């Protein structure tokens, strides 16, 4: 039997990770297993993470049998010991083109809220199936010195002892591993300003609230208070002074929907802009409230990042479960920002097999043109890759279709040459010729 070039990777019962040359490593899209081409692969970055998938079975390809095979037992022990699929969790700026290939056992529960990329062994190194979309290193953990962050938090507590956002963001930096919060205390890039304990949607994969019966903990602690406009302005103005090309950003992972605190944010923006015209003020939002977004634009908002998993109403609604608004309000918000001269990014929550399906890709091309969207921020959706399709009412498995994420990127570049692709919110300096 010949050894495959791309080898399956599995985790033994003790959690140790091994390549297995007895099976070819493959990927998965929409529950379909697919053989990988070396051109699909990138070496796993040093700061990627490995996840072992409980109650699931790794799947590889046997070229002689010409079939996909489940690897239920550790092939190296000679005993019937369970082994597990291994997924790669990639750092920002890399978009997954396949999920890890696995089958579920009857005991399988919802996976924790992360993205599960394929992880294979190729030419002596671990690899993932992904495309780079942004080379900016602003969330690179290796540049974030824990001692300097700790000193930054203490410094802010001394200078702003009554500001409740300081201890909240301190917790985000030290407990929730929030890169924006860490950078805030290092005095650089984007200042995160959470404001809303509540939301008007109920996303299946919301990282700050999950109903207890689903059995997965949210990965962020949601803010429990609404800061005053003065608290917000204090934090924002400090950042605008310190960073040369700063962003102040409402709508964070540790909160609900910021436009539900529209009056507070509007007043805060007016306070900030009365003292500083520097930098960019950004809103990350589900964009269900166009009338609030119009007021925020009037107050001085520069950029808006609209989050969605799909640009098609049925799939948007099944994932977001919006309350009191619909997809047409989202597009109305985008049009509102554009009319006011603002810059719109789509925070496009990507899942291999859905995002690159012909229906979604065609709709994306159309929506970008119709609503004059400036940028796509490609985000791997942190959600169980099989449950996602069940939630959307779509079939899992079947024969391969879809064009692949790299082809979707190509089609977008051809159809919309001015569309910007990336991962991070744009800095003010980069908006000049946008
Ligand atoms: S819009 Fe954001 S805060 Fe609201 S449910 Fe969805 S992910 Fe959670």
Key descriptive features of the protein:
434 residues; alpha+beta; TIM Barrel; 2 domains; 13-stranded antiparallel β-sheet; seven-stranded parallel β-sheet; globular; binds iron/sulfur cluster
Sequence-ordered SSE layout with sheet pairings:
Layout: E1 6-11, E2 17-29, E3 32-35, E4 41-43, E5 49-52, E6 56-62, E7 67-71, E8 84-89, E9 94-96, E10 99-100, E11 102-104, E12 117-122, E13 125-132, H1 146-159, H2 165-174, H3 179-185, E14 190-193, H4 229-242, E15 247-250, H5 262-275, E16 280-285, H6 290-299, E17 303-308, H7 313-320, H8 327-339, E18 343-350, H9 358-371, E19 375-380, H10 387-391, H11 405-415, E20 420-422
Parallel strand pairs: 14-15, 15-16, 16-17, 17-18, 18-19, 19-20
Antiparallel strand pairs: 1-2, 1-8, 1-12, 2-3, 2-6, 2-10, 4-13, 5-8, 6-7, 6-11, 8-12, 9-13, 12-13
Helix pairs in contact: 1-2, 2-3, 4-5, 5-6, 6-8
Bound molecules: iron/sulfur cluster (SF4).
Iron/sulfur cluster binds next to loops.
If you had to describe this structure to a student in words, what would you say it looks like?
The protein is of the alpha+beta class. The protein has 2 domains: 127 residues, no CATH class; 240 residues, Aldolase class I (TIM Barrel, Alpha-Beta Barrel), CATH 3.20.20. The strands form 2 sheets. Strands 1, 2, 3, 4, 5, 6, 7, 8, 9, 10, 11, 12 and 13 form a 13-stranded antiparallel β-sheet that branches. The chain is globular and about 75 Å long. The N and C termini lie far apart (55 Å).
